[in-house]
């Protein structure tokens, strides 16, 4: 699709007909503002032709904002105009216009300029799409389709920084299946992989849409809970623990029941903790849970309670 915006210049009207005859789907817009319309799909654009005719500052702002849109970076933008456009060509190019041409150029010559740009733009977007798909695949766990450890680490760093800046709580839950080796030994590796996939689905069903649940390796999973304090995180871990207990897992040809242990930690406003500290505390809580009987929820660091200084270990 080629978008031609604001075309009082006869050259753009003629270019529209030539592009249509060449097989392009042409959309004529009365103003440049369509570039900022949320319904406009940038990946579908072969190119944009702009007729310069109006407030230069407003037009420069539109081009800059268009370039900030997802997928717009590789879309060729060509502008035609009169002396005003030519005098300000450097400013338009700095804003994101690729080529500025005079409005008295023959239409056929205009197409000689734009068609190679359209081809290169399509190639750029194909490469960008392939790179994005490759990048997304590199952040996904092959077995479960969930985010992997690398994805989890990137989200963790971003969310810890955001929690620190805006003064919000952030919680982390680490969990793994109790005695998972027995599943593999009894039913085989293929059944074990199936159980891990099912376990991931159960935990995913326990999370909110904007939380991150990732497979960290083996039968260990991580869960980041945004704007969730320690008490709320313990409740969430308890709900997930019950879902695991209530679920029947298929280990062909049989079904099995599982338990899991959950380690919880949190950052609350005013607390100076790094991402490594948050995960490290959750890992300590998980280890503590494994050492104290499994199928439990533990929080680290334990809360001090009572006048005698005894630990209230935040358990369930």
Please provide a written account of the structure.
This protein is α/β, with parallel strands linked by helices. The protein has two domains: 137 residues, Response regulator (Rossmann fold); 164 residues, Reverse transcriptase/Diguanylate cyclase domain (Alpha-Beta Plaits, 2-Layer Sandwich), CATH 3.30.70.270. Helix content is 46%, strand content 20%. It has ten helices and 14 strands. The strands form four sheets. A five-stranded parallel β-sheet has the order 2-1-3-4-5, with helices on both faces. Strands 7-8-6-11-12 form a five-stranded mixed β-sheet, with helices on both faces. Helix 1 links the parallel strand 1 and strand 2. Helix 1 packs across helix 5, helix 7 crosses helix 8 and helix 8 packs across helix 9.
* Beta-strand residue fraction: 15-25%
Biggest sheet strand order reads: 2-1-3-4-5
SSE-based structural type: alpha/beta
The name of the CATH architecture of the largest domain is 2-Layer Sandwich
Give the overall shape: elongated
> pLDDT under 50 segments (min length 5)?
305-313
Major beta sheet summary: 5 strands, parallel
The tally of structural domains comes to 2
What is the assigned CATH homologous superfamily of the largest domain? Reverse transcriptase/Diguanylate cyclase domain
Order of helices and strands: EHEEHEHHEHHEHHEEHEEEHEEE
């Amino acid at each position: 699709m080629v978008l031609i915006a604001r075309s009082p210049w006869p050259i753009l009207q003629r270019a529209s007909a030539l592009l249509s005859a060449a097989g392009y789907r042409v959309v004529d817009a009365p103003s440049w503002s369509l570039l900022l319309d949320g319904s406009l799909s940038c990946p579908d654009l072969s190119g944009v032709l702009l007729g310069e005719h109006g407030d230069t500052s407003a037009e420069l702002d539109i081009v800059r904002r268009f370039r900030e849109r997802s997928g717009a970076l590789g879309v060729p933008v060509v502008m035609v105009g009169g002396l005003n456009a030519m005098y300000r060509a450097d400013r338009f190019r700095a804003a994101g216009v690729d080529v500025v041409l005079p409005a008295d150029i023959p239409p056929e010559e205009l197409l000689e300029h734009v068609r190679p740009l359209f081809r290169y733009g399509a190639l750029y977007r194909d490469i960008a799409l392939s790179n994005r798909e490759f990048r997304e695949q590199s952040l996904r766990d092959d077995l479960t389709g969930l985010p992997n450890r690398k994805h989890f680490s990137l989200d963790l760093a971003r969310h810890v920084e955001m929690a620190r800046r805006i003064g919000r709580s952030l919680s982390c839950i680490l969990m793994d299946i109790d005695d998972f080796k027995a599943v593999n030994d009894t039913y085989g590796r293929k059944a074990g992989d199936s159980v891990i996939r099912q376990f991931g689905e159960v935990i995913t069903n326990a999370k909110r849409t904007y939380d991150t649940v990732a497979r960290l390796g083996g039968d260990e999973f991580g869960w980041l809970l945004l704007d969730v304090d320690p008490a709320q995180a313990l409740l969430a871990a308890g709900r997930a623990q019950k879902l695991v207990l209530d679920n029947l897992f298929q280990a062909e040809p049989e079904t099995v029941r599982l338990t899991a242990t959950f380690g919880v930690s949190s950052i609350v406003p005013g607390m100076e903790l790094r991402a490594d500290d948050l995960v490290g505390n959750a890992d300590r809580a998980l280890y503590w849970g494994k050492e104290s009987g499994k199928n439990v929820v533990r929080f680290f660091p334990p809360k001090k309670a009572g006048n005698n200084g005894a630990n209230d270990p935040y358990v369930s």
